[in-house]
Write a structure and sequence with these properties.
21% helix, globular, 9 helices, Metallo-beta-lactamase, Chain A, alpha+beta
């Protein structure tokens, strides 16, 4: 997508699966499965789609996937169709890791931040993007250093300490302008320091809400993940940002949606238009595990 001097691309790391009940929280399965498919084990097919943003002399990545450090047990736990590899994902776009000038991290959960650090053959942990500044909210850094018993597992040291030791972490305190038309916004909700971003240019705006809008099926503000640490904050933040997107006719980008890259809302507040994802081999493998017919409008 072209937005003035900016170019936005959706990269594709891999398809994977998570428990549908956890992804939709207290919403009954008989309700959410009308909008998103589920397999016999109650897992839903998802994607890892980092955003690649280029313009104004910068090459930025938004989130990085699980990364290549997962062992076989973890790969099976998350039902990865193929091992994650941010270097491979970038290579598909014709880029090497040292081409990245900045990484925006919506939050530091492993499926978004695990790819920031790579384990070398001798076991050393090194930053995957050695020239990049890593932008996250100051409150997310606070959460890394003072984990709650509920969140401790979500912030493994191996995903962030090498970045801190290398001096690559760049803290934002709420709202921050990174470049003309590119802004970070603290939302909280999913995690203490969860952030969204807006990218504007050429009369268009893309809003990326991270895990506040993991898929198109999470449009209803009350459809909140069980993974959210502060669900009441998620509801309020999602209400606010969805209203802005509707009024401004913005695109809302998705990181985890298997079927859509982004959507735009109509005046009734419902999805009016989508940018469809390409159907890749690993997506076909993920969909082959789905035991029910796809809800209306989700087939390619």
């Amino acid at each position: 997508m072209k937005l003035g001097e900016w170019t936005l691309d959706w990269l594709h790391d891999t398809a994977f699966g998570l428990d549908g009940g956890a992804m939709f929280g207290v919403v009954p399965r008989m309700v959410w499965q009308r909008k998103y498919p589920v397999d016999r084990d109650h897992f839903i097919p998802l994607a890892l789609r980092p955003l690649l943003i280029r313009g104004h002399g910068r090459t930025l990545l938004v989130d990085s996937g699980y990364g290549s450090k997962l062992d076989a047990r973890q790969q099976g736990q998350f039902r990865l169709i193929r091992p994650c590899d941010p270097v491979r994902t970038l290579a598909a776009a014709g880029l090497a890791p040292d081409a990245i000038t900045d990484v925006i991290v919506t939050h530091m959960h492993p499926d978004h931040a695990g790819g920031l650090v790579t384990r070398t053959e001798d076991g050393t942990l090194v930053p995957t993007f050695p020239r990049a500044r890593i932008h996250l909210q100051a409150r997310e850094i606070e959460a890394l250093h003072t984990p709650h018993p509920r969140t401790r597992h979500a912030y493994p040291d191996e995903n962030w300490r090498p970045l801190e030791e290398a001096g690559l972490l760049e803290a934002a305190d709420g709202h921050k302008v990174l470049a003309p038309g590119l802004e970070l916004h603290h939302t909280g909700g999913h995690s203490l320091g969860h952030q969204a971003l807006t990218l504007s240019g050429g009369g268009q705006t893309v809003l990326h809400l991270g895990d506040l809008m993991a898929t198109h099926a999470h449009l209803n503000p009350l459809w909140v993940m069980a993974f959210d640490d502060f669900p009441m904050d998620t509801i309020l933040a999602k209400q606010d940002w969805v209203a802005k997107a509707r009024e401004g006719e913005w695109w809302i980008a998705f990181y985890h949606d298997m079927f859509h890259l982004a959507g735009r809302l109509g005046t009734d507040g419902q999805w009016a238009e989508f940018l469809r994802a390409e159907r890749t081999e690993d997506v076909d493998q993920a969909l082959a595990k789905v035991a029910m017919d796809l809800p209306a409008g989700l087939d390619w």
